[in-house]
From TrEMBL:
Gene3D superfamilies: alpha/beta hydrolase. The keyword Hydrolase applies. PANTHER family: AB HYDROLASE SUPERFAMILY PROTEIN C4A8.06C, ALPHA_BETA HYDROLASE FOLD-3 DOMAIN-CONTAINING PROTEIN-RELATED. GO terms for molecular function: hydrolase activity. It holds the Pfam family Abhydrolase_3. This is Esterase. It comes from Karstenula rhodostoma CBS 690.94. Residues 117-335 form the Alpha/beta hydrolase fold-3 domain. Keywords: Hydrolase.
Length: 364
């Protein structure tokens, strides 16, 4: 009896493996990202490709994390949680506070410690107070700031406007009630975050201006700035998208057009209400005025559908007379910020975060 040969003939696949990099884009990606993505992400379901109830019940089964650096000095002085009232005091959200070991970086100001209010990413659907732990520690250790990480409630359980209102409530709670308990210099307050967190930071900066609350910096990393091209069903027609990056990167990896449609449906609802169009709380790029805003650091990624709207927002900030700085990370996907252990552009992002904050805080 002859044994069957184990030499298999090449087969033509009818479709590429799930979440693989499109061949037309592969050469443009950072090669280290390609290597890790193909080893750990291809063939796996992404978080938006399973029912939200299944993800909420088993999040660890669907989160693939690789390439994130551990903070150089992983220990900060103290980590604690405080409660922030929301919904006129009917409910509360958590804010995690990261404090430095000492006041070596206090620098210019009234003697108190500078402040950074952080909002995590995740499309207003995913992410929590643990998402940006290393990022928050790095800011504390690199600047001496006290970092407040706001755990806003997420869609679809809490759709728009809840994440925005929670972000604003968290910001107000920090600047109006926590200066004494944490020895804060409220003349040196910055906000920031990636993706949905960048969107929330932009909205908070708009509201802070309108409320007369000074900010020294808004850090907008791969931000969502414009949701007006999503229809009432949460769809975007690729060929009609107002930004070239949506047409070019609709089928990219880590954040595709399909994934953004998923976020739009969960965050804005179906059918989407007409009041969410031309609404600066949804699309800060459509604010009636962008004048007199805090200085901005806007960072985008080349291989991200959000690239061009981030750049467009930067251009509008500059045109309105604001101090704004822009960087695009070549070869990087939307998740560049959490690839800082394997990609040079991720390390560059870390350096930009710290250098811009030190400048804003008056720290040499």
């Amino acid at each position: 009896m002859s044994s069957q040969s184990t030499d298999l003939k090449p087969a033509a696949l009818s479709r590429p493996p799930l979440n693989s990099i499109p061949p037309r884009l592969r050469a443009r990606f950072d090669p280290e990202f390609v290597r890790y993505h193909e080893a750990y992400a291809v063939g796996r379901l992404h978080t938006h490709q399973v029912p939200i109830a299944e993800f909420r019940a088993n999040p660890r089964s669907y989160i693939t994390s690789f390439g994130k650096a551990i903070a150089d000095a992983p220990n900060v002085g103290r980590i604690s949680d405080i409660d922030c009232p929301v919904d006129d005091g009917k409910n509360k959200i958590k804010i995690r506070v990261y404090e430095p070991n000492d006041d070596a970086f206090v620098g210019a100001g009234n003697g108190g410690r500078p402040v950074y209010v952080n909002y995590h990413g995740g499309g207003w659907v995913f992410g929590d107070i643990d998402t940006d732990t290393e990022h928050c520690k790095r800011i504390v250790n690199g600047t001496g700031a006290v970092v407040f990480d706001v755990e806003y409630r997420c869609a679809p359980e809490h759709p728009f406007p809840t994440p925005v209102e929670d972000a604003w409530a968290g910001f107000l709670h920090v600047v109006k009630t926590q200066a004494g308990p944490f020895n804060l210099d409220t003349s040196r307050v910055a906000v920031g975050g990636p993706s949905a967190g960048g969107h929330l930071s932009a909205v908070v900066a708009l509201r802070a201006r309108d409320a007369g609350i000074p900010l020294v910096l808004q850090q907008l990393h791969v931000p969502v700035c414009d949701m007006d091209h999503f229809d009432e069903q949460g769809r975007v027609k690729k060929e009609e998208a107002p930004y070239e990056s949506y047409r070019e990167m609709y089928d990219t990896v880590t954040l595709s057009g399909e994934r953004m449609e998923y976020f739009a449906r969960h965050y804005l609802g179906v059918p989407r209400e007409k009041s969410t169009y031309n609404n600066p709380a949804v699309s800060p790029i459509h604010a009636a005025s962008l004048a007199n805003l805090a200085p901005a650091l806007v960072v985008t990624a080349e291989m991200d559908p959000l690239r061009d709207e981030g750049y467009a927002y930067y251009k509008k900030l500059k045109a309105a007379g604001n101090d704004a700085e822009y960087h695009m990370l070549p070869g990087m996907p939307h998740t560049a910020a959490i690839l800082d252990d394997i990609c040079e552009q991720g390390k560059r992002w870390n350096a930009m975060v710290l250098s811009s904050l030190k400048k804003a805080y008056g720290i040499s």
